[in-house]
Amino acid sequence: MSLLKALDSAPFYHGTKADLKPGDLIAPGFASNYGSQKKASYVYLTATLDAATWGAELAVDEGRGRVYIVEPTGPIEDDPNLTDKKFPGNPTKSYRSRSPLRVVGEVREWQGHAPEQLRAMREHLERLKQLGIEAIED
To answer: Whole-angstrom Cα distance, residue 56 to residue 52?
Structure first.
């Protein structure tokens, strides 16, 4: 059974700085919002608002962070960038897909992380970059 079937009742979110509207598709094959911005093989989604908030805050594009409510159009799987390397068992409820995500709405009111948390995360990501470790490995 695919993860999509197991989680079909969960609301899913995608954090970014892209200005999107309902009906838009977020698809792989474009420059990633993170790291060296190489062509993304997957699109990422989460079932937690906190993880989507991190995505909105850490995306490299200009503009304000946005959190969208999305629905997968195909199978999803656990995001190994988080589940295998950082958080076994997927407590962040983070997933990825090779199929597009359809934007169905936007979370207009969400709380960003404290400035010191955001600074610490950016410093951590910069240390990884200096070590040659990409934040997202497709």
So the answer is: 6
Q: The pTM is what? A: 0.79
Question: 3-class SS at 97?
Answer: strand
Q: Sign (positive/negative) of CA torsion 119, 124, 128, 134?
A: negative
Cβ neighbours, 10 Å, residue 36: 11
Q: Is 69:26 a contact under the CB 8 Å cutoff? A: no
Under 8 Å between Cβ of 64 and 85: no
Domains defined for the chain, CATH in brackets: 3-130 (3.20.170.40)
Contact of 32 with 39, CB cutoff 8 Å = yes
Contact 46, 56 (CB under 8 A): no
Q: Which two tokens stand for residue 42?
A: 């997957």
Q: What SS3 class is residue 50?
A: helix
* The pLDDT of residue 58: 87
Q: Which residues contact 14 (CB under 8 A, 6 or more apart)?
A: 26, 43, 44, 45, 46, 52, 55, 67, 68, 70, 101, 103
% of the chain residues with pLDDT over 90: 45
